[in-house]
Hints:
By secondary structure, the protein is of the alpha/beta class.
Amino acid sequence: MSSTDTLATTRLAVLGLGNMNGAILTGMLAAGLPADNVVATTRSADSAAAKADKYGVRVISNEQDPQANRTAVAEADVVLVGVKPKDIVAALRELSDALPADAVVVSVAAGVTAKTLGSVLRAGQPLVRTMPNTPLTVGSGVVGMAPGEHVSTEQADLIEQLFSGSGLVVRVEESLLPAVVATAGSAPAYLFLFAEAIAKHAEQLGLPRADAERMAAATVKGAGLMLEQGDQTAEQLRTNVMSPGGTTAKAIESFQADGLEDIVARAMDAAAARDREMGEEFTA
């Protein structure tokens, strides 16, 4: 059976259609999943109607059907759980006995470990933890994916294919998900902060704020495309534009003198540490 055939027959339940789950669903539909194969849930009837119109899938609300989540998962092959870390254990406990035994539960909740999630699921339930980042909303995200011990090779391949419509998918061991959080999950905010700082000081240098913001955004985008589409490393690309004694060299020397690499490392360590702390906080 081809990957296209597999997608054509996969039944997906999406629990919660917030911005992240909505972006993931958009990518899965772009990857070839038929909209008719999707059942999603939301809290309110108004939201269900709006989301059904937006994504072209069946959406049921907890307001109309208090058992909406259980209804949605009853015949699913894959269950995408878009519930906040503090709520995911209770949500899975409530519907665990409604899940088909071979349905793959996919969590996007940061920090909450497979051990914790598995403790409220049926023994042997396939489980995949993922760590997506917000650029999925524009089809250019990163997803760290950690298949659990009960996930078959075919199921892991299917989940990867479903997420591939939203960007880069990297399989890792669960123990490395805190590193994925630090490297990709939280990293868009690092770049937003850097662009913010550039635009702010550009205004102080005399540029209109709107022009400064557009220039910073375009520069971040262009640099990202050079990294993604070329065959050179970030270090090589950086040195290519550093003429000895030139303006770029002076700027980089200033960054390095102020310890930019240490600043980045400490920020990444803080993000990874917080992810591990959340794993201890949100237990069954």
